[in-house]
Specification:
Strand 4, helix 5 and strand 5 form a beta-alpha-beta unit. Helix content is about 45%, strand content about 15%. The N terminus is likely disordered. It is α/β, with parallel strands linked by helices. The longest helix is centred in the C-terminal third of the chain and has 21 residues. The strands form 2 sheets. Strands 2-1-3-4-5-11 form a 6-stranded parallel β-sheet.
Length: about 375
């Protein structure tokens, strides 16, 4: 009897892998040392191994010209991949997508980085580029609002009047959409935003920009940042001002930032989008196995969460994950389920992880 119980549990927890292995190229838009995009890559690699995907990775060097050249070189000297996952750099979307169309490679884009006139030029997925399956992205506008609210609430709960400055990433859709969310929120709250400056996602540059802003606006006590790395730079800038309390937040859920939130040195971090590469990969496994999601849909959109000192302990399990292969990514596949849309949220992810660990513990005890 024990044998049959163990066998049944093993069958229930076996990965729902692709029928046959296929190849995906992930174009990491940054460099290997960049912590956020390396985490995206690490999680994606774990999902690929679990779902029988042969994953190749190239790096775009945080520059649209370098990324395009790296993609050209890969397609020239390597076997054509079955799929590509990439981010479109503003100003370079049409070139990258035209290159993939030329090679007849199906692709999924991450983040909604192209808007305005350039978006009209490239159109919607499958409109002008038939190999563009769709987009996997989070709501940057909403994330900007959420982070702004968390910082404002923290300042007001401490009995302070909030005086905001904002550190944006680069002059582009992604970062501007985040700061536009902040502006919209503060306007509705009748709170003034002194200035938005750009630090190009760079920690050192953010430190310098914050120092200048604090000199220009000495009443500043809230520093909204479009990334966690820049929030760390902002924290460095205020270290010499020990007699004043600052409320600093960023985006990305970097482990270092979550520890600093727990210690009370940082205020908030919006995040969860480090999973987007894995979510894109899961959708491609479904597509390769004949699921109709990308035939009937153009996007997968998910919300970010905000971690503050009020709920940081609820997310410790994320920081405790050293091996992402422990996460049951196959449970998010639509193939073999009755779901018609992806359920990509961290509560479900945590629940599945706890369930998997419990099953493993039961099997071990059964022996």
């Amino acid at each position: 009897m024990r044998f049959w119980i163990i066998s049944l549990l093993m069958l229930c927890t076996m990965p729902l892998c692709a029928v046959e292995q296929f190849n995906v190229l992930f174009v990491n838009p940054s460099i290997k040392e960049e912590p956020f995009w390396q985490k995206v890559t690490d999680v994606m690699q774990a999902a690929a191994k679990q779902t029988n995907v042969d994953l190749d990775i190239i790096y775009g060097g945080a520059n649209r010209h370098i990324q395009l050249e790296e993609l050209k070189q890969y397609l020239k000297y390597n076997a054509t991949p079955d799929y590509v996952v990439l981010i479109n750099y503003p100003g370079g979307a049409e070139q990258s997508m035209s290159l993939l169309e030329k090679h007849k490679v199906k692709f999924v884009t991450l983040e909604e980085t192209i808007l305005g006139a350039e978006r009209e030029q490239v159109g919607e997925p499958k409109q002008h580029f038939k190999y563009w399956l769709g987009e996997v992205y989070h709501d940057n506008f909403k994330a900007g609002e959420q982070l702004g609210k968390a910082l404002l609430d923290s300042a007001e709960n401490a009995g302070q009047t909030a005086h905001f400055v904002a550190i944006n990433g680069h002059y582009g859709t992604e970062s501007d959409t985040r700061s536009n969310g902040l502006k919209h929120f503060l306007k509705n709250q009748q709170v003034e935003l002194e200035q938005v400056v750009y630090a190009n996602w760079n920690k050192t540059e953010a430190t310098d920009k914050v120092r200048r802003l604090l000199h220009r606006y000495p009443q500043t006590n809230v520093i909204w940042c479009a990334s966690d790395l820049m929030a760390l730079g902002a924290l460095d800038a205020v270290k010499e001002k020990n007699n004043k309390q600052y409320f600093i937040g960023g985006m990305d859920w970097l482990d270092d930032n979550l520890r600093l939130i727990e210690q009370g040195r940082l205020t908030a971090s919006a995040g969860g989008h480090f999973m987007m590469g894995a979510w894109a990969l899961i959708s491609l496994v479904d597509h390769h196995n004949g699921h109709s999601y990308w035939t009937n849909n153009n996007s997968i959109k998910f919300l970010l969460g905000v971690i503050t000192n009020q709920n940081v302990n609820d997310y410790n399990w994320i920081r405790d994950i050293e091996d992402w292969s422990a996460v049951p990514f196959d449970a998010f596949l639509l193939s073999g389920s009755n779901n018609t849309a992806y359920q990509l949220d961290f509560e479900r992810l945590h629940s599945l992880l706890l369930q998997k660990n419990a099953n493993v513990a039961f099997k071990e005890s059964a022996f």
